[in-house]
Amino acid sequence: MKTKVAIIGAGIVGASIARVLSRYENLEIHLIEKEADVGWGVSKANTALIHGGYDDDPDKYPMRAKLCIKGNRLWHQWVKELEIPHIWNGALIVALKDEDFDELERLLERGKRNGVPEMRIIDREELFHLEPNVNPNALGALYVPIVGQIGPIPAVIAIVENAVANGVKVHLETEVRGIKVENGEVKGVETNNGFIEADIVINAAGLYADEISKMAGIDYFEIHPRKGEYWIFDEGIPGPNHVLFPTPTPISKGVVVTTEISGHLMIGPNAQDLPKDYKDDTSTTRGGLEEVWQKAQEIWPNLPPRWKVIRTFAGLRPEPTGGDFIIKAEEEVQGFINVAGIRSPGLTSAPAIGYEVRDIIERDLGIKLKEKEKWNPYRKEITHFFMLQPNQINELVKKNPAYGRIVCRCNKVSEGDVLEAIERMKFIGVKTPSVDSVKFRTKATTGTCQGSFCKVVIINLLAREYGILPWKVTLKGKGSEIGIGDVKVLLRGEAQ
Amino acid sequence: MNSTILQYDVVVIGGGPAGLAAAVKAKEYGLNVLLLDENDYLGGILPQCIHPGFGIHYFREELTGPEFSHRFMQRVKDLKIDYFVKARVLEIKNYSDLEKIVVFTSPEGAFEVWTKAIIYATGARERHAFEIGIVGDRVAGIYTAGEAQTLMDIYGVMPGKEVVIVGSGDVGLIMARRFALEGAKVKAVIELMPYPGGLARNVMILRDFSIPLYLSHKVVEVRGKKRVEKVKVMKVDENLREIPGTEFWIKCDTMIISAGLIPQVKLLTGIGVEIDPATGGPVVNDLLETTVPGIFVAGNSLLINDLVDYVAEQGELAAYGAKLFIENGGIPAEKWIKLEKGNNIRLAVPHYLSGKRDVYIYARVKKPMENVVLNFPEIDKKIRLPVVRPAEMLRIRLRKEEIAKAKDKITMEVIQQ
Question: Chain B contacts of A383, Cβ < 8 Å?
Answer without folding.
Answer: none
